């Protein structure tokens, strides 16, 4: 719950920032000189890119949450069996061992979104965020019946 509050707070701050930057871009365009128009258009592009990125991230998180709720309802959410250091950090060898098991499960059932979801969690625990996102996106696509690349 705390993560959701943090996410929505940061998203709201970003939206306010986008509005402020966008208004500055409009003011620059209203100046009417070629230079300020060029800067104004450039300034307007930044909040558009940011808003698109925020939308994509929110959509991804909602879809991943939907899959997690489905797995929870099935009683198939992965159990946290990681060894942790006294400070609470995940032990690297423990994460690697679980990752290998999840990878083997996924190779055995490559069309099952559940194995890709669990593999994404294992990638995350192994601190490989780019691959975790790709694996989760594949799980989402499989769940939704969308074509899967690569």
Q: How is this structure best described in words?
A:
With 150 residues, the protein is mainly α. It has two domains: 2-64; 92-144, Alpha Horseshoe (Serine Threonine Protein Phosphatase 5, Tetratricopeptide repeat), CATH 1.25.40.10. The chain has helices at 2-31, 34-74, 92-108, 113-125, 129-144. The longest helix has 41 residues, at 34-74. It is elongated.
Number of strands: 0
How helix-rich are the residues, as a percent range? over 70%
- Write down the overall mean pLDDT: 93
Portion in strands: under 5%
Number of domains: 2
- Give the low-confidence spans: none
Instruction: Give the N-to-C terminal Cα separation.
Output: 34 Å
Question: How can the largest sheet be summarized?
Answer: none
**Backbone CA Rg:** 21 Å
Structural class: mainly alpha
The tally of helices reads 5
What shape does the CA trace take? elongated
Order of helices and strands: HHHHH
Helix and strand topology:
Blueprint: H1 2-31, H2 34-74, H3 92-108, H4 113-125, H5 129-144
Helix pairs in contact: 1-2, 2-5, 3-4, 4-5
Descriptive key words:
150 residues, mainly alpha, Serine Threonine Protein Phosphatase 5, Tetratricopeptide repeat, 2 domains, 5 helices, elongated, transmembrane, Tetratricopeptide repeat protein
Task: Give a concise summary.
By secondary structure, the protein is an all-alpha fold. It has helices spanning 2-31, 34-74, 92-108, 113-125, 129-144. It is elongated.
